[in-house]
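Q&A log
Question type: sequence-to-structure
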Amino acid sequence: MNRILVIQHKMIGDVLISSIICNNLKKAYPNAQIDYLVNDNTVDVLKGNPNIDSLIIFEKKHQNSTYELIKFALGLRKNKYDLVIDAYSKLQSWIIVLLCRGKRKISYKKIGRTFLYEDNIPYAENPSTNLGLAIERRLSLLTPLNLNFELDGQPKLFLDQLEKDFADKIFENHKVDKSKKTVMISLLGSEKLKTYPLQYMTEIIDFISDKYNVNILFNYFPKQLEEAKIVFNSCKKSTQQNIYFDLLGSNLREYIAIMNKCDLIIGNDGGAINLAKAVNKPSFIIFSPWIEKKIWATFEDGKKHMSIHLNDISSDLISNKTEKQLKENTLQLYEKLEPKFVIEKISPFLDNYLL
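Response status: OK
Response body:
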């Protein structure tokens, strides 16, 4: 194969996880040109990845204009792709696949769209390993190629020395206690329906501060500053003394560098957790009631990577509910996932890494 296109629009976590397709393709076809088509706001997670030869940026104008989308897709035709793998598999990527005319095209099996692809892979409904469905489904897109090695399902981030030096410097400037381990708190989700109640999160942070002799960092976006302050101000004074509230990166790469110096991460499901796993940090996730844990509980092994979901505590509140119903009632359902349940499950995880 001479040239391959992998398509994954959407969020940072999706783009990072789908990069495993590129990683395995480069191993299988080291001389092939691997192009990765992603949204413009996600490119930072791919910096330094030696398995991606070129990023093709799907810009806002392509997303918001049918004319620009068609022009963009037709422009890809000149690349004469030998293989196109569509890991996104929604309307915009269907149009791109149709118009760019790759010789062989692979995606998930969806009714009414199978004519676009030579290989249509059924969606796995349940995981068969601890990789989680988010990873297993992406690796399944490589099965038609009959690659003769064990596929690598670990997403990877690549930091250069300047980024590592930045992290060292910012820890030094903030006088982070080197004698203590450092815990990153994924304080807030990307939206309210993915955010564990703030008063509950405060209890978890106080518990960690009381029991373990650690430094605590908060991860949050600038637009979430006021919510972060609410949590900080609600914590005990003794807890506040252990929190380095202003130790933040100004961009995604700086967050990754900072996370790389931490010992573990706990908190809300989202990009921050996926990035932490990609730099090999232990994680504990608090899932929103409407999220399917079996998809995003990647590498769960009961030790290094653990999580909790309301379904683990009261399955009757979750079972037989549609995603729409769960979303409509998420804030009420979150209240059922009381801190005592989280503390009970997180304690062995924290004991293992912090004591």
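Response note: The chain has a mean pLDDT of 96.
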